[in-house]
Amino acid sequence: MNDVLLPQVNSNCRFCNFNQWMPAGVRVLNAAVNYNPFSVTIGNNNIATNLDQGSITRYNQVNQGYQTVTLSGSNGYIYVQKQVYIGDGMTTIAIINTASGLDLLPISDTACATNAFSSCIRVANLAYYSGPVNVELGNVIFSSVPFRDVTAFSRVSSGNYTARISRPQRPGNVLLSVPANLSPNRIYTMYIMNWNASADAIQTLLVEDRRS
């Protein structure tokens, strides 16, 4: 009998990044597996220390323009040192697995119009080992979202949903079902990540933000 990989679910990250717009604001998400926690600096700014897999920082303000982002271990070993452009808006830098090791993926955190009855949500696929995924949320389906891709925001009625994640080849075979509680006047990003180096080892992180 084959071993069954049980998917891990991160609880909803409610209000963990409850921010207004911040010019040149940057936060960092560790979506990489099979590594110890990282330290992250941007220029001369220490952004994170001991950033675990599946964790995200708050926004930090940095200077706009090209910045040197350094990803290192507790022993000072530098895994990645890369120039990343920071615009005048807000950006999430995701630490991801690649075929050659680690990489940094900047994600623009744009706004989406909401009201007292609606929310906005998008999906970011950072699961290197899983390939493209479908994410079904009520009547909204994000189809065949490839690795490294971030969808546009979809506006939905606020409320409680169940997000179902599957493969495009077998949409009826749900890999993971997680609650998604969407508050009105809020925008959300659902990050899809691995929790180990297996195609079926899927976890999610739902991050709520305020843009007004």
Describe this structure as you would to a colleague:
It is a single chain. This protein has one domain (25-209). The protein starts with 24 loop residues before the first strand and ends with a strand. The chain contains no helices and 16 strands. With 212 residues, the chain is mostly beta strands. The radius of gyration is 17 Å and the shape is globular. The chain has a four-stranded mixed sheet, with no helix packed on it. It has a four-stranded antiparallel sheet with strand order 3-2-5-6, with no helix packed on it. A hairpin with a 7-residue loop joins strand 15 (187-194) and strand 16. It has strands at 25-30, 38-42, 45-51, 60-61, 65-72, 78-86, 90-98, 101-108, 118-125, 133-137, 140-145, 154-157, 159-167, 170-182, 187-194, 202-209. It is 0% helix and 54% strand.
